[in-house]
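Two proteins, back to back. First:
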Amino acid sequence: MTKQQKADEMTKGRITEHTEQMTAEPTAEKTNDDAHEGSTLVTTRHQFHMLLKHDNVDELFLMNITAADDSSHTKEIKVHPLDPQLQNQVDRLLHQYRDRFRVELKKRPHSVYDHKIDTGDEPPHFKNPYRLSPAGMLELKKQIDKLLAEGLIRPSKSP
């Protein structure tokens, strides 16, 4: 199998060579002066294909890096209070447009109609969901559960 065929198979998810759980430690960034044989290169999928197309890779390691579950690695962000004049301007603006900001969503009115989309002989269009970080997935699940509980959305019944 050539490098190009192997890369194509790996990006399609057909080959998994090695999986290992590890912890990444911060390292110094490499400069252009450090570019030499054996240097580390992080690429996009398109750049990866171009590297292999031009045969510029002798060995490669494919890694999937996800966020750590514990909060010991998070950084605290400090927010400084606004000066009194700016705070008054913000308060007036929020008060002026208070009807634009809702704490809770209104309930969806019940419809007497049963809506259906006639696609003829065509099956429904399928699209893979967007990739999210673990924290993003938790937030999405929390919001979906809340909307389901409030009756604003319901599970899909498409084939």
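And the second protein:
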Amino acid sequence: MRRLLVIGIIVLVLFGAGAIALAKPETAVATLTVSEGQATVKKTRTQFGIWSSETAVTLTPGTIVTISQGDVITQESGSGQLRLQDGSQIDLTASTTLAVDELVITSSSYRVQLQLLAGKTINRVVKLLGAEDYFRVSTPSSTAAVRGTLFSVELLSPTSSQVVVDEGIVQVSMGTDVVQVGAGQMVTAVLGQPLLVVPHNQPLPVNPNHIYGRSGNPHDTPECQQLIANRNDVRTSHFVTHAQQHTNRTPQPGNGNS
């Protein structure tokens, strides 16, 4: 009889905890919509603070799902839009994986921390953030923090990423190196190299080999090769500046230097 009483109390406690959980429904602070292609959302939930469970939800065009802190979104193909309840929006391109590390949006607090694991996001932050608020997008090589703007973040490789700003100002940090990137500017963050802010309003009209030369040319330094690898994302002025710097340090044939 005593054993049955103990079991009954345990069942009652668990039932009561479940009732409390049902009485406090999860607040929807963000929604993900797939415009085209397919996306997968991995959700990890803790049950009663004892154990956690993971589920995966597959989305097709027109499907909408609630996104919460701890979710990981993978836009396998096509494109999708992550909309926050304040009106801010994060566009996900194909082959993008985004982890929602922190997502707190209330009348008194605004804290959004996203981690870009692959691909590219275009971020439209409409809220004028307070002194203690933040919206951050991190990659393995950099962190972009904003206070209301339009910008994109792309992971180029495990050690490099790129931030392009169309409106407002974005603070980009890599270790102790911090730069302010304004509208019409961009920065490519490569681990081990300083952050360099350059314009992004002109396409690259020339083949980088015409500037740096081929194998054996003194311009073929690791720094130059990194820029060539990212040639679709950097601008002519960036290449020319580095080419001139290396040319000025390199003796030229026929100038009397041995």
